[in-house]
Amino acid sequence: MKKTLVFLGAILIMNLAVSASSLLESGKPERTFVVGVRAGFNSSNVSNNFTTSVENMMWAHNEWKSGFTVGAVVDINLTNFFAIQPGAYLQKRRSDYKNLVLDEAGAEMQCIEGERHSNFFQIPILASLRLTLSKDVKGVADFGPYFAFGFGGKDNGTITLVDTGVVGVRENPYKNDYFGEDGSYRSYDWGFKMGGGLLVQSKYYVGFHYDLGCRNAHRPIPLAKKEISGRNKAWNFTIGYNF
Q: What is the distance between the alpha carbons of residues 28 and 39, in angstroms, rounded to a whole number?
């Protein structure tokens, strides 16, 4: 019985080794440097802790909205199955929010609804694993840090004031900058980018990535009970072509 188990285990290990060797194609790559372009759409959001940090904030709801992503990458092929991939992307991001502020006596309510628009220039540096699935198709798995710099952008919305004492309703629209001294969000961000995709005939690419910000995206808010905190988040879905 023990000999049978050892024999079956040896066969399993051999099969796994053969599978790994077929997936991880060894040898020197034909081209060390490959330039590619990418384009697609994203869905983004910014988390927050408003309900615990802003006085009388009853709830704060964020909605993911779509934007677009365009950019270019350079594959530095160290082997046939591993590459370092720096890139440069322009991301247009959008998200909606709805907040509710209610004073302690319940006499006045503020409904805050708005939409954020922001632009980021992002530089990721990814470790990219290339798995040979067939003669013409490779699976791609990416992970690495990114650095992003925000510019432009607007934070527009309406504050609806409801005074229960006089049964009055007032709407006050507002338009603010997204970044800068007059904005509510920090322009520099860094985090991690991860995802995967398919590379066909070493030229045609389709993939998805998740951006997880690690820096607090919010600027301080006056009169807040505690530090405002939250992170940038985004899904990116792109297609591309390698030259």
A: 29
